[in-house]
Design brief:
The protein is α+β, with helices and mostly antiparallel strands and 329 residues long. It is 32% helix and 19% strand. The strands form three sheets. It has a seven-stranded antiparallel β-sheet, covered by helices on one side. A five-stranded antiparallel β-sheet has the order 10-9-8-12-13. A hairpin with a 2-residue loop joins strand 3 and strand 4. Helix 7 packs across helix 10. The protein starts with 18 loop residues before the first helix and ends with a helix.
Length: 329
């Protein structure tokens, strides 16, 4: 990973290449880079943070177009903005599409303006009982790279996870990779998983102990590790209030119930001064609910073909475990 800036020089790159990567932006050093000249965009060319083509400048984040996801996310954010749907209160402020040197970017307001960058703590939580679209289960090509990825994140490659054929070939399909990843974390059982925690004193990623963080006790420990050293109780109380507000907004949102929300995250941020934020990110895989009536419940068990994502199941369990964290402080 290269071309990352110091905490004092950037704002968070919301929803860019995965929130874990974004968290790491705040703890690594690199050279500055400048925004290219824009077409139809008045953003000044200031120093910007960039990773994999994504850039930050002037209080805005620019998310580079990615095949098969860009238009989907743009359309979803645009619909939130145009309809003033209650869900929009929980998501980054959308400012359309910017074109720079022939490339397209989704432009969003930075989420962490006003946070103390020396003490900021951040956490990425993946929401839902599955982190894949149903159509992705059709994949049948054996992939050695995904077998190696299991090794990288520290999953024990036993016959309880893989078949003898998969172990012999040292390759698994994308469908198997995704279902194993969900089952060995808390995704399948709790409807969410902690995928990254970055604080001034600690960094936890999916390539470490979080890969198999699945029990209530393990998840509580992960949530607690996000809290700043100063004012942890006040921070926890604010997080719970914010999660309650998010749930209320989602339950009033027509768009939420009309959508299959896959691959979305909650980004948590807090600092030593007591500033706290929680937002919904990443809608590149979110799509219209292809079910009779066009609406999902978001709290029913997923079965192939019902398209339920378990988002509200995850949000309920997340609040339950945050209340346990508070009770144990």
């Amino acid at each position: 990973m290269t071309s990352l800036l110091t905490p004092s020089s950037i704002g968070i790159a919301v929803g860019a290449v995965g929130a874990v990567t974004l968290l790491l932006l705040l703890r690594r050093r690199s050279r500055r880079q400048r925004l290219p000249s824009t077409s139809g965009d008045k953003t000044p060319k200031k120093g910007a943070a960039g990773h994999a083509g994504n850039m930050e400048s002037g209080g805005f984040f620019y998310k580079l177009e990615v095949a098969n996801r860009f238009e989907n996310e743009r359309a979803f954010l645009e619909q939130l903005r145009v309809t003033s749907d209650p869900m929009s209160k929980c998501t980054p402020e959308f400012h359309g599409v910017a074109t720079m040197e022939g490339k397209r970017y989704i432009k969003m307001r930075s989420l962490i303006e006003g946070f103390d960058m020396d003490s900021i703590c951040q956490m990425d939580v993946k929401m839902g009982v599955r982190y894949f679209a149903e159509k992705e289960l059709d994949s049948t090509k054996p992939r050695p790279d995904l077998f190696e990825k299991l090794l990288q994140i520290g999953l024990p490659l036993t016959r309880s996870l893989l078949t003898a054929e998969e172990l012999g070939a040292k390759a698994i399909t994308k469908a198997r990779w995704m279902t194993i990843r969900d089952a060995t974390s808390s995704t399948k059982e709790l409807g969410f998983r902690v995928d990254g925690v970055v604080t001034p004193v600690r960094r936890r990623t999916p390539f470490g102990d979080l890969a198999t963080c699945r029990t209530d006790g393990q998840v509580v420990d992960a949530l607690r590790s996000f809290l700043p050293a100063s004012r942890p109780r006040a921070c926890c109380e604010t997080v719970l209030r914010r999660l309650g507000e998010i749930e209320s907004s989602l339950r009033r949102s027509e768009l939420f119930f009309q959508s299959e929300v896959i691959g979305s995250s909650l980004l948590f941020a807090a600092d030593k001064n007591g500033k706290v934020g929680v937002w919904l990110l990443d809608f590149g895989l979110t799509c219209a609910a292809e079910v009779p009536g066009g609406c999902l419940r978001h709290d029913r068990p997923w079965k192939l073909g019902n398209h339920e994502d378990g988002y509200l199941t995850g949000l309920t369990n997340l609040q339950r475990l945050w209340r346990r964290v508070l009770a144990e402080l």
